[in-house]
Design goal:
Distance between the termini: 46 Å
Mean pLDDT: 81
Largest sheet: 12 strands, antiparallel, barrel
Length: about 210
């Protein structure tokens, strides 16, 4: 009996080789499905746990709010810091910077994320790598509805999807105050980078009252 043909991936998502932003170890040659659980009813908002399909914790996110900047740290499953995400204080477009480890030094900058306009009905972010300081053309972009947990991440200004979010709510998750959604990351795309973008999306929209 022949197996059914797999559903074709969206156009342009098949990278022939890894595209590491944070690290090659986070680039898999196959699609990666991650489950994101945001703890809603906590004193320090912005805490996440990210697991694989087997429930193994891959990443954790911890917020640091007793500082001048809104700062969050992406940790691996063992609790080791991978990157630090920091919101710039003076920024009309909600600009965030992502640094290696727990550093906030410019020499450790990996990429910058900013909202394309101050007033937006839908999420629309542009991502600029550290080697693109002029920011004339974005390296990646994020579009969609954060409130519906339905966002797409694209390569540059193209229509090539490299990752997408899906809402995954259960009655139990609502009762215990947790926000569940899943993310599909396409082959050879850095899934730690994708998780970092989701954390920034949450940071931007939490300051907007969790709007779109």
């Amino acid at each position: 009996m022949a197996l059914p043909a797999p559903t074709p991936a969206p156009s342009g998502t098949q990278f022939a080789s890894p595209v590491p932003i944070i690290g090659t170890q986070y680039c898999a040659p196959y699609p990666v499905d991650l489950a994101v659980v945001k703890k809603v009813l906590t004193i320090s908002d912005g805490n996440f746990v990210v697991t694989d399909v087997n429930g193994t914790v891959i990443f954790k996110v911890k917020g640091k709010f007793l500082t001048i900047h809104d700062r969050r740290v992406l940790l691996d499953g063992a609790g080791n810091p991978i990157v630090t995400l920091r919101k710039k204080i003076v920024s009309a477009h909600d600009r965030w910077q992502v640094f290696r480890g727990e550093s906030v030094e410019e020499s450790d900058l990996i990429f910058t994320v900013k909202r394309t306009s101050v007033l937006q009905l839908k999420a629309k972010l542009h991502v600029f790598l550290a080697n693109n300081p002029k920011e004339e053309v974005c390296d990646f972009k994020v579009e969609g509805s954060w409130s519906e947990r339905s966002c797409m991440i694209y390569a540059g200004e193209s229509s090539s999807i490299i990752a997408q979010m899906h809402k995954k709510a259960t009655a139990q998750s609502v009762l215990i105050g947790k926000d569940h959604f899943s993310v599909t990351v396409y082959p050879n795309v850095d899934y730690a980078f994708i998780v970092a973008l989701i954390v920034i999306l949450d940071g931007i929209n939490s300051s907007d009252g969790d709007g779109e």
